[in-house]
Amino acid sequence: MKKVLVAGCGLVGKTIALDLSQDFDVTVMDPSESSLASIDNPNIKKIRKSVTDADSLFEIAKDMDVVCGLVPQPFLKQLHTQIIDIGKNYVSPSGYRLSEGLDTLAKKRGCTGVCDIGIAPGMSNYLLAKGAEMLEELDFGCIYVTGIPDKLDPPFNYRIVFCLEDTMREYCRPARYIKDGQLTTAPALSGIEDVYIPGIGKLEAFFTDGLCSAADNIKGNYIAEKTMRWPGYVDTINVLKAAGCFGTEPIRVDGMEIVPFNVTAELLRPIWKLRPENGDRDLTIMRIVAKGPREGKYVTYTWDMIDKFDEKNNLHSMARTTAFPCATAARAIANGIISEKGFFTPELLIENKNFDSFLMSELKIRGMNFKLSTLIEEL
Hints:
- With about 375 residues, this protein is an alpha/beta fold.
- Helix content is about 30%, strand content about 30%.
- It folds into two domains: about 1-120 and about 320-365, Rossmann fold; about 125-315, 2-Layer Sandwich (Dihydrodipicolinate Reductase, domain 2).
- α1 (about 10-20) crosses α11 (about 315-335), α4 runs parallel beside α5 (about 100-110) and α11 runs antiparallel to α12.
- The termini are far apart.
C-alpha cells in the first residue's frame, strides 16, 4: 500500500487524511495534541511533531509516496521547499505565491508538485482554464465563489471557517483582474452585482483578490474573481472600514497603543465563528462562467456547484470542498495519472485528459458535482 504524509491536522488536513485512509497508508503530522486527537481512526498513524523540525520532517517524509501540505502560511514555504528538495511528490491547497523556483527544483529532483489545488484557488482556476480551452478565445471569464451560513444570521449574515484575518485582509487589498487583456486592479468590495443561485436565492458579488495563478496563466479579454455574500454584506463591511476598524496603523487609546485591525478581529471572532455544535451550518457555492467565440457562434459555458455541511460525518462544507480536490490530486500522482515532473498550479493540468475525467468523477462521488450548462448564441 502506498504511503501518504498529511502535514497539518486542521479541518482540511483531517478531512484529507480520512479520505485518503480508504486506500493509502496515511500518517498525520501536527504539533497539536488536540488536533491529532480529533482523528478517531485506528488506520491513521499520528505523530506529534512540527514541520519546523526539519530533521523529523525528513525522517518521516523520506519513505512517503506523496506529502500533503496543510500547515499555516508562515510555515508553508519551508515545508514545500524541503519536500521537493528531497524529491518527494507534494500537493497543497495553497502556496502559489511562495512557489518561486520550485518548478525547476522539482524537475531537477524528479518529482511532481501541485499547489493551490483546493476549491478557490483550485477548482476555480481549473474550470476557468477548461472553459478557455473549449473556446477559440476567452472573451469573458469570471469566478463566483462563497462560503456562507445556510440561513440569514443578522447582523452580518456571515460565519467563518478558516482564518479570520486573511478574510479581513481580502476586504482591504486591491483585487487583481484582467481587463482588455491586461492585468489591472480594482478596489476590494467594488464591482458589486447581483447573482441568482437556484435553490439559494439572490447573493451579491464583489471583487476580491483571488485569481492567484489564473491571472498569470490564463489568457483572456476579461478575467476576474468575485466573492459572493448574502445581500447587504458589503455595506456593513464598508461602514466598519469607514470607521477605521480595518486600519493597520497604531492609535492611542487611554494612553495605550492599539492596532484597530487587531481589535476588530478579536471582536468579530466570536460573532463570526461557525459553531456546528450550536446548529450552525455552512454552504459552499461556486459558479464559473466562460464566454467566447466557437465555430462561428458565441458560446457561454457555466459550471455550478452547491455543497452543504456533511451531517453524517460532521464536516464543514468549506473543509470538504477544499480537501477533496487536494486529496484527488494526491491520488492522481500516487497512481501515475499525473506523472509529469515539475511544480504545477491547477490550470496547467487541463491538457491531461485522464486527470480531468478522474478529478471530476472522484469529486462527484464525494458530492461535489459541477453541473455544466451551455448557451449558444449568434455572433
